[in-house]
Amino acid sequence: MLLTTTGIRLVGGRSTSFQGRVEVFHAGQWGTVCDNSWGLSDAHVVCRQLGYPGAKAALGSAAFGRGSGPIWLDKVTCDGSEATISDCGHNGWGTHDCGHGDDAGVVCEQQGIRLVGGGFTSSQGRVEVFHAGQWGTVCDNSWGLSDAHVVCRQLGYPGAKAALGSAAFGRGSGPIWLDEVTCDGFEATISDCGHNGWGTHDCGHGDDAGVVCERGIRLVGGGSTSSQGRVEVFHAGQWGTVCDNSWGLSDAHVVCRQLGYPGAKAALGSAAFGRGSGPIWLDEVTCDGSEATISDCGHNGWGIHDCGHGEDAGVDCEQGMPENNSNSTT
Q1: Element (H or E) spanning 42, and its range?
Q2: 23: part of which helix (H) or strand (E)?
């Protein structure tokens, strides 16, 4: 998947337009950005330039695959307030000491939508949308599962488990942006659904809408123990596995926390919970342990690997769930 605007684009994020390798257009040619000094302030500028509210992660080491052609920028130093990446400090166009193995990438805050107040679980919360430079909530009038499906898919989850109202995840603040939302369930974003118009409503924050999404990650093959199993992730409409190259406890911590567990006890490889089938989605996963989801971690790019299912990664999570887990199967 590629998203492009105003001389900048994200490439290699597959079906997900809000993440990818950063490429800039200069002197009639697209080229990449080197990851020397690459950080979240730089990523914020890129994401805002592309129309997103901001960035969730700044990635290096060609996390979304190696580009080709010129490496246009190196030693990018943004303070986060610049309008475009070219307004930031850098070594000069085409001046670098990098290879395409150092290509920089970003994960942007998706499509101006977020879930707030879900506690330990990032896949649930009060729905908030970004409009006119400000975050606001959605009213629960007419709020249902079709609407929740659109929200969850927009956030990269397979779909929704529940649509909640009456400020189930706490009352928001600021504007109530949407009311009488009517989705048929197939729209790409909540703003594509019918609604009363931005900011037109007869609600209070006690009517704030929420969702519980299918997490997009699951543990399979752990037998009667739901807190362990082969790691499978949902991407491009299909479940697939994770290769055990570079797989370690920091990566397992992110998986377990994404599933709602406190953390991980062990990171396992060599198909310890049996061989999966279908695509191998992730390889060379490198998390520092603080990421919200495994997709926020560094990796080779979706579907790029040199593995077989005999190398499927698994985890054993610490038990003690803040909520019942329904994303594990035997």
Answers
A1: helix 40-49
A2: strand 19-26
Distances from the Cα of 131 to the Cαs of 53, 123, 199, in angstroms? Answer: 9, 22, 10
Which among 16, 73, 20 has a CA at the least distance from the CA of 47?
Answer: 20
Determine contact, residues 255/315, Cβ cutoff 8 Å.
yes
Return phi, psi of residue 170, to 5°: 95, 155
- Overall pTM surpassing 0.85 (yes/no): no
Domain ranges of the chain: 3-108, 112-213, 217-329
User: Tokens 């199993």 sit at which residue?
Assistant: 229
Structure tokens at 211: 């969702």
Q: What DSSP line would sit under 80-115, residue for residue?
A: S--SSGGGSB-S-TT-----GGGB-EEEEPGGGEEE
* Run of H or E including 40: helix 40-49
> What is the domain class of 3-108 according to CATH?
alpha beta
* Distance separating alpha carbons of residues 9 and 105, to the nearest angstrom: 10
Element (H, E) at 234: strand 228-235
CATH code for the structural domain at 217-329: 3.10.250.10
Instruction: State how far the Cα of 170 lies from the Cα of 125, in Å rounded to an integer.
Output: 9
> In the CATH scheme, what architecture does the domain 112-213 have?
Roll (3.10)
Q: What is the mean pLDDT of each run of 10 residues along the chain (330 residues)?
A: 64 76 94 96 92 86 93 96 93 96 89 84 89 90 97 87 96 97 92 94 98 91 91 88 97 92 95 96 93 87 92 93 44
pLDDT value of position 16: 62
Confirm whether 3-108 and 112-213 share one CATH topology: yes
Q: Look at residues 81, 52, 62 and name the one whose alpha carbon lies nearest to residue 22.
A: 62
Q: How is residue 253 annotated by DSSP?
A: H
Q: Which amino acid is at 261?
A: Y
What's the rounded Cα separation, in Å, for the pair 210 and 327? Answer: 20
Kindly give, in sequence order, each residue whose CB lies less than 8 Å from that of residue 188, ignoring residues fewer than 6 positions away: 150, 154
